[in-house]
Amino acid sequence: MNKMNPLHIVALLAVVALFLFVQIRTTKDELSTELTTLKNSKKIALATTAYRDMYANPNKTKRELERIVRQDSKHLTLRQSAQMTTIDSKALSLSELNSFMSKIFNGTYKIQKLQIDKIDKKSARLELEIAW
Amino acid sequence: MSLVFKQQQQNIYLDASADIDVDSKTKYNVILSPNLYWVKKVSLPLKYARDVKKIAHTLFEESIPENSLYSYHVYKKEDNFFIFAYDDKEILSLLESKGITTANISAIYFAQSELDAMQDIYKVNDLEALHVKDGIVILLPLKWFETSQPLNIIDLKLSKEKIKLQQYHHLINSNIIVKTIVFLLLFIAVFSVEFFIYRYQKEQIVKQKNKIFTKYHLKPTMMQNKSILNDYERIYKTQKRVRETIAGFLKANLSKSEKIEDISYQNKVIKVIISHVSKEDEKRIMAPFYKQKRTYNSHISNGKLYIEVKI
Fold this sequence. Notes:
The complex is a heterodimer of chains A (132) and B (311). By secondary structure, chain A is α+β, with helices and mostly antiparallel strands. Chain A folds into two domains: 1-55; 58-131, Hypothetical Protein Ta0175, Chain: A, domain 2. Helices cover 59% and strands 24% of the residues of chain A. Chain A has helices at residues 6-55, 58-72, 94-106; strands at residues 77-80, 84-93, 110-118, 123-131. Chain A has a four-stranded antiparallel β-sheet with strand order 1-2-4-3. In chain A, helix 2 runs antiparallel to helix 3 (94-106). Chain A is rod-shaped, with a radius of gyration of 32 Å. Chain B has helices at residues 49-59, 88-97, 111-115, 174-215, 222-250, 279-291; strands at residues 9-14, 27-32, 37-42, 71-77, 80-86, 105-110, 122-123, 128-133, 136-141, 149-150, 162-163, 259-266, 269-275, 296-301, 304-310. Chain B is rod-shaped, with a radius of gyration of 50 Å. Chain B contains six helices and 15 strands. The mean pLDDT of chain B is 89. Chain B has 311 residues and is of the alpha+beta class. Chain B folds into three domains: 9-171, no CATH class; 172-218; 224-310, Gyrase A, domain 2, CATH 3.30.1360. The longest helix of chain B is centred in the middle third of the chain and has 42 residues, at 174-215. At the A-B interface, helix 1 and strand 3 of A face strand 6, helix 4, helix 5 and strand 12 of B. Strand 3 of chain A pairs antiparallel with strand 12 (259-266) of chain B.
């Protein structure tokens, strides 16, 4: 007559219930952490993608700079390398300089180096390096 | 290959005066004396023994003392129900007094179910004998009978009507235990469902997170991604300040004679040279930077104002 003590069954069930309760609490905490991580990941992903598009997109930057240089002046020279684009001019009229620099400043380019020297009342020398 | 040794089984008749030699290696089939239980043979308009068991306690209201915890057993034989009431604690105490532990017990039977086919008078001790009257096994004084036979149950073929003694019946009402078990099982079921829902949700979130990491080409750890974002934010702030500072110089309050000769930016330093500036004019030109509490160096040499602003 190896009958199991019913109190042992109650105790076993109570332990199982307690174990499940603790597991629920742990999983709930993990769920909350994962939710926070998900929200942060989304935020970081969107921000990083936007910044990457602004400062680390060489093809887009090169394309836009080529277009600006072509539109603005024949006196501008554009040189491309793997890390940067260099735009310079030995003599640029002040109106051309104004128009060109407005476009550069309004765009989201990573200006590495800028040098503007006044030659006379109507022209200036320009050297600009834009990196990514 | 495993060897299984079947324990030896032995039938014993249990009453208060029985003298039993207990062997710890033997399993006993215990047949309860009629003085260890109440029995009623009744005919009821019910089909199943389990239905009769529900009302069994009402049939013994007059025989059993009030507030006593008796267990009930019912079986059907032909058209009659045999209903038993027994005190688990009393039987267990008697077994204990005879040196029989629950580990030594194979099964427990009623004399009624096992010996009701007896034709004779069987002596069970010096004072009592078993006899079957109207299908009920009863215990009568031995002296009422002239002749009797000793009770021999060694080769008795036992029925299926065995009972299990409730060891803790006297401690806690079995109803409470059953309710507690049901309550706990309910809790376990609810907890299990809740646990699996949370686990499923967690898995879904992890999947979504992994999708985001793949879609946006993020690095494996959040620390790396935060570091990359911080770098980009630093670039953004620097570029914003470069533009604001140069715009500040271009909008500076210069007199007609004062001209910007040179603007340069490299290694986070903006340098500006303004010509035809006197010492008094320097304050006017640099006033906006002074108000913004910007760090700058300036000096005048040969009528030119040299300014250096750190980004």
